[in-house]
Amino acid sequence: MKMQSTSSLTKPTLGVLEWFRPGEYEQVERVLADLKTIGIQHLRTGVSWADWHTTQGQEWYTWLLKKLGDEINVLPCFHYTPPSLGIAPKTAAPPRRPKDYADFIDLMITRFGDYFEWLELWNEPNNLNDWDWRLDPEWQIFSEMIGSAAYWAQRRGKKTVLAGMSPVEPHWLARMCDRGILAYIDAIGIHGFPGTWEFDWQEWSINIEKVQVVLERYGLEPELWLTETGFSTWKHDEHGQLKAFLQAIAAPVDRVYWYSLYDLHPDLSTQDGFHADERHYHMGIKHPDGTPKLLYRLWATGGLDAVQEIALSSQLSAVSQKEHLLISSSPHPLISLTPNPQFPVLITGGAGFIGTNLAHRLLSTGQPVLLFDNLSRHGVEQNLRWLQQRHGDLVQIEVADVRDRYALRRALQNACMVFHFAAQVAVTSSLKNPLHDFEVNATGTLNLLEEMRSLPTPPPLVFTSTNKVYGGLQNVPLRLNHNRYEPIDDLVCRFGISEDRALNFYSPYGCSKGAADQYVIDYARTFGLPAVVFRMSCIYGPHQFGTEDQGWVAHFLIRAIEEQPITLYGDGMQVRDILFVEDLVDAFLLAQENIHTLSGQAFNIGGGNENTTSLIEFIDLIGEVHGKKPRVYFDSWRPGDQRYYVSDSRKFQTAIGWTPSVNLRQGVSKLYQWLLERSGQRLAVSGQLFESGLTHNLYL
Q1: Residue 614, preceding bond cis, omega within 30 degrees?
Q2: Sign of the CA dihedral 590, 596, 599, 601?
Q3: Torsion, CA 662, CA 663, CA 665, CA 671, rounded to 10
Q4: Average pLDDT of span 205-223
């Protein structure tokens, strides 16, 4: 059958590939929900001939094909020989009777043909894990098996896809043409994984042309499909996955199936064995627990336009960085006590709340800034867009992860100073995944320090630590004073918690940030890196999209604006000092200017005793600013939650002369107005949480 390819006329139909193991009923439901979220109607999945012959196989595939066929356009890929029917006892073996496969296809069409229009005949015939061609060196058995199955499938009114080649092999395809198989094939399957394990990869257009040359020679015009393509994020390169995805859907083909929605669970095994190749475990656009990666998050919240926008932004930034390097007169800048317009300031986590405010301040003076951010947090793309709109080419972007040392090495090449904000920022998230928390916060910081240490002249570093390094502060005796706790000790009551307080890491987050805190101080002491640590209290201000996990001041205001209730954990009388972000930016820049006298020290930084509030008092303040107090619910205390924390910032104030200039009411009013102006927009995750009815589990 000859069909006119539409690949040169329209964009390819987009689908997703997900393999299911028998019994994964809940996973199927999750995948269907995710496909609906991102607007995908096509799913490719495997139907194992071998599993069909097991005890539960028929029950499983009866449920699966009906479930999928009722909700989406499913492409079943029929593969894997039952070991009892193979010429060797394994699923990759050719069957002793090739006709058995055609009979299986005929049976599947009879039972489930109402649920699919297309079907795929086998998978990766030039991959030993799927077809052991050593047992069929000329693919004679394969040709007979697929030819008869394709013939009967077409007779039964179905359209057929030839098993996807991996890698593209024009000689193999020509052999199939010589044997007449393509007379019964409606689409040619192609696989490719650029950037993952195809080290000799060529552009999609080149690989597609190889196939087209063969088809033109035989006068055939089947459709061309990428039945399987993807990118492994095993090196934490989620931006690389995004770029590979866009390249795939721009390929000159009729259909693309992206592999896959979910990473493989680490407790499971691949065809190659248990963790024999770590890359196989990270092909999803979501983690095994459902946490979205960059591609899925952008796709789900802003569609493919949002995905394309981030890719374009990073491409333009890469061009800008190259142009900047060309005009640089030195391989690395000397340490500067002020920003240097000839070299960029590097801000890791630069698209976040604090990074955006610091970047805006620097960019407003004409100072180029390199934002190093993996864009994993909801709302950061809004900050990125805002900075680009305001400052244009002065904004440089490196979409990368601090766990990638080589990306950090690139970013540091011409940095005149460094602000290290990139982190996993939530206690709640650290309790769910302590290993991820440690890798980002501790290992990521150590990666940065090591790359800085390798430079001939390391730039000065400001690192943001946390008050959580002091633990729950249970050893600070407290008393109640109306609606708040206060220390019994008069000195602590007057000034707050000083740097003399013993470190007492509590929670995985406290441990990871505490470890990073100490590494920065030690690298300054041991290796002479110019570096200073800020142990911060609660920071708030514009560009903060507060969520249940972090940014409680903004989160409470967002809840009030959206007329949603607030849950207070504990009795609501716990006390915090809060610091407006512009005052923090002042402190950062002063620290950089005085790095030689401050290096190797840690400073507590916050609003101090003049800018304290209990949660109950803050609810009252919201009522004054907003004109209406939000509804409040109470729940039990969480482990490690501090009943009292106020920063004693006298050490930094004495050293530099810095004091906060924005008081609590002024700052809250400014943030409220900023949020109110944007209340018509979808406020990052918070809006999604309102709709889903999830509770809010704030650590302060």
Answers
A1: no
A2: negative
A3: 30
A4: 96
The 3-state DSSP class for residue 432 equals helix
Give the CA dihedral 511, 516, 521, 522, nearest 10 degrees. Answer: 90
- The answer to whether residues 519 and 511 touch, using CB atoms and an 8 Å cutoff, is no
Q: Residue type at 382? A: Q
Q: Which of 561, 554, 660, 569 is nearest to 607 (CA)?
A: 660
Q: Which pLDDT tens digit goes with each residue over 169-212? A: 999 999 999 999 999 999 999 999 998 887 778 899 999 999 99
Alpha-carbon dihedral sign for residues 407, 685, 20, 255: negative
Q: Which of 509, 519, 523, 645 is catalytic?
A: 509
The three-state secondary structure class of 248 is helix
Q: Could you give phi then psi for residue 286, rounded to 5 degrees? A: -135, 150
Average pLDDT of the chain to the nearest whole number? 91
pLDDT above 70 (res 32):
yes
Report residue 631 as tokens: 């509804």
Residue 171 neighbours by CB distance under 10 Å: 9
Total count of residues recorded for the chain:
700
Those residues whose C-beta lies under 8 Å from the C-beta of residue 233, and which sit 6 or more positions away, are 240, 241, 282, 283, 293
Catalytic (active site) residue 699: no
d(CA 232, CA 259): 10
Amino acid, single-letter form, for residue 522: D
